[in-house]
Design goal:
The complex is a heterodimer of chains A (233) and B (273). With 233 residues, chain A is mainly α. Chain A is built from seven helices and no strands. Chain A is extended, with a radius of gyration of 28 Å. Chain B has 273 residues and is an alpha/beta fold. Chain B has a single domain, classed as Rossmann fold (3-Layer(aba) Sandwich). In chain B, 49% of the residues lie in helices and 13% in strands. A six-stranded parallel β-sheet of chain B has the order 3-2-1-4-5-6, with helices on both faces. In chain B, strand 5, helix 9 and strand 6 form a beta-alpha-beta unit. The two termini of chain B are 19 Å apart. Classes of the chains: A mainly alpha (233), B alpha/beta (273). At the A-B interface, helix 2, helix 4 and helix 6 of A face helix 2, helix 4, helix 6, helix 8 and helix 9 of B.
Amino acid sequence: MVSEIILSLISSAFVVMIFSFLYKDSIWFHFVTHIYIAGAAAYGVAICLKNIYYQGVVPFTQGSYWYLLALIGCALMFTRFVRGYEWLIRLPSAALIGVGIGLNMAAGVQAQIIAQITDTMKSITTSTIATSVNNLIIIAGVCSVTMFFFFSRETKGAMGSINRVGRCFLMVTLGSSFAYALLGRTSLLIERFKVLVVYPDYYILILAAAVILYDALIRRKRNSLSPFFEVSS
Amino acid sequence: MTEKLRDPRWLWILFLICIIIPLVRPIGLPMGVSGNTVKVYEAIKSVTSGSLVFLSPDYALENRGELQAMLVATLKCLLQKDVKIVSAGFYGTTSPMLMDEAMKKVGLENYGKKYGEDFVNLGYLPGGEATIAALGVDVHSIVKVDFYNKPISEIPLMDHFRSAEDIDLVISIAAGNEYPDKWIRQWQVKYGTKITGGAVAMIYPMMVSYVASGQLKGYLDSSRGAAEFELLTKNPGEAIITMDAQSLGHIVAVVAIVICNLSYVISKKEGRA
């Protein structure tokens, strides 16, 4: 229980230190970002080593000798750090790119081109007016935006009008993306504050607010550098 | 004075106040359930007893705030059914850690389930699309141990999961559009597996076209979708209590956008912009 409270307080203190960037760039912000990067890198390396061991080394030692190819490919990825042998990284990279494109192309045509085009072939004479209007908007949107990216004719006359309609659809799409971005970022902020406003973590929030206020007053009074937040250059 | 008021930090303070107040004292603003959330619920409901469901947290630690509540709500809904759950993360090394956190929070024992018999966390599987494709063909050639380093030959549930043919539903909770894309390309197109899930708000508009074409059986929209799902499944949780703060935050944003644009138009007219 005590350990949970301590961990929760450390977590909240780290959140507040990150948020201190909103007030000004600070040593606290740099301190926490460095810890985060170090922790994430260490965890990533540990998981990758585990995967290499269980998915490469173990099968090889159990008699699946062709796993040696995978292990050699893995080792070649590190040749970029060996002067004179940097080019060897191209071998596993080429294999990865080839497999990736092959897998993507094979099913991608059906999943992302044919299925999507098929779904655009909608009837505009349905039983309800709302559905008909929706279908019409989808057809108009797809056609006009596709024509917007047709570059072989000058955008004049009818082509210009279609272009403008396409641009409007694109604007609406961008607007919706921006709004969704706001929704996502607000969710992240709320999730953190949900932790900060409960006992005993709100003491960290109060302490941070007091430090910022004191710092602002000192800076104003002495017209000097911030005593708590200044980053040495 | 006017220059000081133009400091964006005032907007931050206002924004923070508007999200903190409803977190401390919830207002209880009304909330509806969208059609896409209902579709996700129906897709899960349609899974028959004893089936296998693949629950994939395709996100990393940085998306925890937006997607963890969704993962917990989905897991609770699945555990209430007589289905078996296999989980693996492909997006980032931290994704299985988040699955582990969700599992401990929900508590398998609270639903009469056992790890290894009803649920298994296979951990992080590197390789992205190639691994998803290979998993569809032969799971046991790809996965050797679970997240806790236990050999899968010792996990009874893994006897029932050998390829994509054994899975009735894939639930991909994703931080980027590439993961629903990959599941659709490698499992939906090839094996006809039903796919559903949820995503961060940024990619939700891109996923809607897959829902319209029937390639995705509904899709949850960030924390809003998670809250709707909690409401629908009668499992109130982390997402639903944040919705008041979300709504008030959005009101501040909309008002700020309107004021800024009006001020820009007025300044332009006066020849100051």
